[in-house]
Amino acid sequence: MAFQKRNLLIVLGHGLRSDALDDSMSWPLSTPNCRKLMQHGIRMSATSACPADTGGMLSLLTGLHARQHGYVDQLNGHSSRAGTAMVSRGWPALLAREGYHVAGVGCVGAIQPWLREKVVVDPVESVQAKRCAYMTSVRAKGMDTAIRQQRDRRQKQGLFEPDRLVIDSSYDVDGFIAGRARTMLTGMPTDRPWALIVIFSGPGNDLPPPTLFEHIVSPQSLEEGFVPANLTNVDALAELDYPRVLLQRLNPQQVGRIRSDYLGRVSLIDYSIGRLMRIMGTRKDKAKTWAVLASDRGQLLGEHGLVGHRSFLTGAVEVPVIITPPGPVKQKVYPDLVGTVDVAATIAELGGCDLPKAVVGRSLLPVLAGGRLERRGWPGCVSEFGKRLMLETERYKAVFDTDRQEAIGIYDRLNDPDERDNLVNTPVGTNALDSLRGRLADFLLGIRALPGGGL
Question: What is the pLDDT of residue 410?
Answer without folding.
Answer: 95
